[in-house]
Amino acid sequence: MIAGKPILLAEDNPRDAELALAAMEADHISEKVVLCHDGAEVLDYLYCRGQFKARPKGNPAAVFLDLKMPKVNGLEVLRTIKADINLRPIPVVMLTSSREERDLADSYALGVNAYVVKPVEFHKFLSAVKEMGTFWGIINEPPPERWRFIQ
């Protein structure tokens, strides 16, 4: 895990969340995963509100974002992240079951870094999540916390 930064996993399906955490456990990535069950929780985490008010400051290494979530959907969360100069550098990966062309196009139009369709087969799902966790949580070098985009 780069600089001890967590990965934020937004998943409303308990089975998929459990599988994702199990997949990242082998590389000890799961120890730094923060699980949110809906889009509102993701935004609370990112803005240090509600149950996350006392969390350590700083952005996560990456956000794995389900598209179809209650309260605030994945596209709205993505739109909020990419519109905020302080959150924009966070890599966002859509981890979804949607193969709809519109969802894919909208995600990239809003600035998603990757779009991964959840494999239905158990072992393929575990493999895909493990690879993403390894890349975004260990291999990828995020921008420095004080780095800002030029507007």
Could you describe the 3D structure shown?
- With 151 residues, the chain is an alpha/beta fold.
- The chain has a single domain (2-139), classed as 3-Layer(aba) Sandwich (Rossmann fold).
- The protein is built from five helices and five strands; from the N terminus they run E-H-E-H-E-H-E-H-E-H.
- It has a five-stranded parallel beta sheet, sandwiched between helices.
- Strand 3 (62-65), helix 3 and strand 4 form a beta-alpha-beta unit.
- The protein is globular.
Number of helices: 5
The CATH superfamily label reads Response regulator
What is the 3D form? Answer: globular
The domain tally reads: 1
What can be said about the biggest beta sheet?
5 strands, parallel
Classification by helices and strands: alpha/beta
Written as H for each helix and E for each strand, in order along the chain, the element string is EHEHEHEHEH
Instruction: Classify the beta-strand content into a percent band.
Output: 5-15%
**What is the C-alpha radius of gyration, as a whole number of Å?**
14 Å
Reported by name, the CATH topology is Rossmann fold
Architecture per CATH nomenclature, i.e. the level-2 architecture: 3-Layer(aba) Sandwich
- Helical fraction: 25-40%
Runs in which pLDDT lies below 50 for 5 or more consecutive residues are none
Distance between the termini: 30 Å
Total DSSP E strands: 5
User: For this structure, what is the CATH class?
Assistant: Alpha Beta
